[in-house]
Amino acid sequence: MKYALHETLEVQEMAALRTVNLTKSNIMVLLVSDPELKEILRQEVKQSVEAVQELKEIMKKAEQQEMMT
Q1: What Cα–Cα distance (Å) separates residue 7 from each residue in 3, 21, 37?
Q2: Is the predicted pLDDT of residue 54 greater than 70, yes or no?
């Protein structure tokens, strides 16, 4: 499947947003004292890491496809 330019840009935007969210959540885990909130933030960190990895794979595929054309 070939990705259109706007699709590639959207994926890059999503990756940037998740990366910022990951950074913020990582910092907040250190600052929060409530155990329940701390656990929610840890889950968010885990989900963000997974999402960023998935988005990186999509961008890698898009880049490879672009090189082939």
Answers
A1: 6, 21, 34
A2: yes
Residue type, 2: K
Q: Which residues lie closer than 8 Å to 25 by C-beta, 6 or more apart?
A: 41, 44, 45, 48
* Full-model pTM: 0.81
Angle between helices 5-31 and 35-68 (to 10 degrees): 160
Residue with tokens 């940037």: 16
- DSSP assignment of 1-43 equals -PPPHHHHHHHHHHHHHHHHHHHHHHHHHHH---HHHHHHHHH
Task: Please give the helix or strand (H or E) that residue 62 lies within, else none.
Answer: helix 35-68
Residue where the block lists tokens 């329940």: 36
